[in-house]
Amino acid sequence: MVLKLFEKLEIGDFLLFLSTILTIYVVQYYYKYFTRVNPLPGPFPFPFVGNLPQYYLWFNGENKKFYEYIYKKYGDICEVQFNERAIVLSRTEYIEKLLTPSTKNSHVVRFPDNEGLEELGIEGKGILLNQDLKSWKYNRQFFSQAILSPKFTNEAIDWTNKLFNELEGYWNKLFLKEEIIKENKNKLDFAAWLHHYTNDMIIKILTGERSYSMAAYFDTLSDEKSDHPLAIVDDSVKLVQALRKHLLGFIMFVNVSSFLRHYVPFFKNKADDLLQNVRFINNRLDEIIKRRRQTIENTPLNEPLTNDMLTSLITANTSRDVNHTKTVGGEALNRPMTDTEIRGIIFDGFLGGTDTTANTISFVTYYLAHNQDVKKKLIEEIDRIFQGDKTRPITENDFQKLKYCEAIVKEVSRVLTIAPVFTRYINKPDEIAGYKWPAGTMFRINADAIHYNKDYWEDPDKFNPDRWMAEGFESKKLSFLMFGGGLRLCPGRKLAMIELVCLIALLYRKYEIDLVDMNAPLKVINGGVTACGELLTKIKHRK
Ligand code: HEM
User: Whose C-alpha lies nearest to ligand 1, atom 14?
Assistant: First the structure.
């Protein structure tokens, strides 16, 4: 019936019909905009696309730069419009309610129920983007229990040493031979190597399986190939690349509407590619989980299992588990986890644990090169602890003593935050930042702006690791958001600090690492997280 009506329309009538619909939409859009609750300053939005034109055309989709601009232009509290309206908060007082670390805090969701995440198949799964509170609590409990156990810490330190030895093996062949140094060819992209290192590290400690990301990178740079079979190397590279693509791309499924993703070629192509990518990751993880279940089943009960997270998750609440019967929020959840639940958790461990750590070390290297006094103090600390021994494995005891090294990691993370903006969404009406907000309001917490605010930090523009060493120093409440805050605070923070501090100590204990070009600006990719694009360094043995 409706179709027949359209068949009778002349092209002119059709265009008139279309423009009427469009006009009604635009009028309704701006009516809603101009009559919104608590209007705040912010960039002017456009129908269908909100502030996407400013985000993509002015700032090339660079999150950090966009929010820097927003803060400078519109102040401590302002608003942006993407798929929905979001209030941007840049003061600690404003975020207190959102980041209260108490189970009474009901504001623990990151995004509204999101058809984009559902389309990606990650809604209600894992931890990072899980909106389903019961399933999130359950998953997070298992994840934290596994990651905080002493055997996991030992495993992390052990693999830091082993993979560092592997890394050195490649560097020895490629960059550290005398003639190479003489010819000034001892140059390497530090960021790339560190990405490959952290990929191999996180895959090993999460799944217990070896990946060969560093080996693959070595193979691309050297005529001599690594000792690992090419097919295995290629295979692990595909997984690592897919995980990175997902990490840098998933935010589009939150920010860009379903209409644009399905019908506008620029967005559709990106969306289709990401969907195919996530299917590939799921298949690969399912294979790994099946294989491990099999191994566990074939291992006699009196024989030990491996200390990776996957094994802990598969055996949780089975006869293999020493802590049988977990409770979550007082509720006993004494069933083993399903493969889909395990996949969601491991997936999020990868996403949370690779780029974040690799980028932080790359940024540390950049800041050390530009702050020789800090580098000197770091080396003094390292030499004091290792007493000139440049080869013995690092231990947990060393990690505990490397306080200045830890201070450097924190200071670099303050001045160059990996997650410059993160979100919370309220399911119940509440008063936040002095305004009453209805349920369904989205907030973006501008960690970057808080890290540079004079009210919380003395000389905030100064890179000064010593501020963390002052007797009794504690950053002001909620003013240091390297790992986020509240109930959704990063559960991988202990592992991250172990990895970062140990690796920095191993690197600077033995090597002199300088930038190839001290005047080159730091190459930063500002997606959902802030990544280091490339960091060209020169490396040689320390005298
Ligand atoms: C330097 C390293 C890291 C940084 C800077 C970092 C930062 C963050 C931040 C800012 C959040 C959001 C917190 C919030 O919303 O309040 C987060 C969440 C998360 N991180 Fe990390 N992270 C790091 C390392 C890791 C590692 C090594 C893992 C795991 C192996 C990990 C796993 C996660 C997970 C699963 C979440 C989601 C938590 C939830 O939603 O409940 N992260 N991280």
Answer: 484
CA dist 406 and 482 (Å) reads: 13
Question: Which residue has the least CA distance to atom 40 on ligand 1?
Answer: 128
Q: What are the distances in angstroms from CA 27 to CA 22, 52, 260?
A: 9, 19, 20
Counting from 1 in the atom list of ligand 1, the atom nearest the Cα of 417 is 5
Q: Where are the domains of the chain?
A: 14-105+419-467, 106-418+482-541
The CATH topology of domain 14-105+419-467 is 3.30.43
Give the closest residue (by CA) to ligand 1 atom 41: 488
Give the distance (Å) from ligand 1 centre to CA of residue 18.
46
Instruction: Report CA dihedral (309, 315, 321, 324) to the nearest 10 degrees.
Output: 110
Q: 196 and 203 in contact (C-beta within 8 Å)? A: no
pLDDT at 192: 93
Please tell me the predicted confidence (pLDDT) of residue 247: 80
Neighbours of 59 (CB within 10 A): 17
The parts of the chain modelled with pLDDT lower than 50 are: none
Report residue 328: phi and psi, to 5°: -125, 115
Rounded to two decimals, what is the model's pTM? 0.91
pLDDT at 491: 95
Domain 106-418+482-541, what fold?
A: Cytochrome p450 (1.10.630)
> What strands, in cross-sheet order, belong to the sheet with 511-515?
187-189, 536-541, 511-515
Enter the tokens of residue 328.
């979550």
Determine how many CB atoms are found less than 10 A away from the CB of residue 490.
Answer: 18
Distance 183 CA to ligand 1 centre (A): 42
